[in-house]
Amino acid sequence: MSDQLFSDFAPMDKNAWAKQAQKELKEKFGSATSWDVGSGLRFNSYATYEDLDAEKVAAMQQCQKKVPGWLNVPELEFSHPLQTNLALKNALENGADAALINLGHNALSQCEFPKLLHGIRLTDTPIYFQTSENPEDLFSHISKNASYYLKGGIAFDPVADWMRYGKSFETRIESVAAVLTRTKNMREFRPVMVETHVYHNNGADPVQELAFTTAATVTYMDHLTDAGISPLGAFNRMLFSVSIGTQYLTEIAKLRAFRFLLRNISRAYALPDELSNPFIQAQTSSFYSSTAAPFTNMIRASSEAMSGTIGGCNALTVSGYVANAASPNDLSGRVARNLSSVLYHESAFGTVADPAAGSYLLEKMSIDLAEQSWSLFLDIEEKGGLVECFERGFIKEELGRSLTQKIQTSQNKGIMVGVNKFTEPGEDTDLLIKNPPQTESPFLSHDKSLSECFKSRPASL
């Protein structure tokens, strides 16, 4: 039987495949068989065993997640302590494993944590709190009536906040170090977030996104170890939060490449591989969401969530299809929460730790993306590190160039339903302003969607 099988399906080399693809795709051959990722990196849509370096593949696979599955972590907007408590309990009773509560700009005293967390055991259920308040103050509030061991953490990135608004990050990192000291036995409580969102939502391509976030990780490692925190304690207690975009295969490779980059960092600090366990939260992108045709966001979120889970995230946060609206509704949140459950239970994505392993194409994409990102990271380090590069304008210039390319691609040939095509009547999707006024602000603009870029983003940040 095996001889017959192989005679029916003889091996095909790349040249034979290209000829067949060109015959079938005709004029679409060029655009369908390769695509630009950015930063000089281009992916082909077909790879063979001969394209791979066995040692590099083994190294990529070795640093991937070893335990199947992920946490379903919906995001909840804080409104009132009792109302948010009811929403939290409802989510946990209907598929959520944890929760991310966005406290917004509310003062910690207004949150009334005993009411907010009534009936929730932080020993059993990880709850992440998103706020720009002092981390040590927040921990004091949430631990006051809790047990000795807490799960969850603080979903706040002081360095990213500094890039957006110019608020000093040094004192906040000192506060993070204080919380790390107070919680040294709470291995599942993560008091600081390292996010890609600030770069992703300002137009970063995947190479930039990974390189800048890797540089941010080193920034935190240096500050926290200088404050007396052990390198292993600092590394394993970070919450790495990654925006997942619409380029399905690229985003899978991005997450796998990120784990490879983090392995390089942990080894640079002489941490044992078997003890270094970065915790990665994948979050569906708000940059590619449509404000004019919100139901298309469900389709985009499905693709993004699949990329996140196949790429090996530890936690998944799916944004609702009207998450960008002024008042997200209950159905939007329910669909988002159920999407993670369907992928886990019905699609069986939660049964394999590294579903992408062994795919020639995804292995090559992961390796190429990691190598290109590492090269840019080293360039940042040679220039003095992330903080120095941001203060000199390097980060902003890089993001501005990438954002302009994204908008021009969307104008010329890239169709996104509800963003630049098939929008609602009266929706303004004017093309990019040719000669925008220049801003003297050194800080990054607030996070926006791509559709908003057509109306308000300048050609350079």
TrEMBL record:
Keywords: Isomerase. One of its GO terms (molecular function) is methylmalonyl-CoA mutase activity. InterPro entries: Cbl-dep_enz_cat (IPR016176), MeMalonylCoA_mutase_a/b_cat (IPR006099). It is an enzyme of class 5 (isomerase). The keyword Isomerase applies. Residues 149-431 form the Methylmalonyl-CoA mutase alpha/beta chain catalytic domain. Gene3D superfamilies: Methylmalonyl-CoA mutase. Its EC number is 5.4.99.2. The keyword Isomerase applies. Pfam families: MM_CoA_mutase. It comes from the Bacteria. This is Methylmalonyl-CoA mutase. It comes from Dyadobacter arcticus.
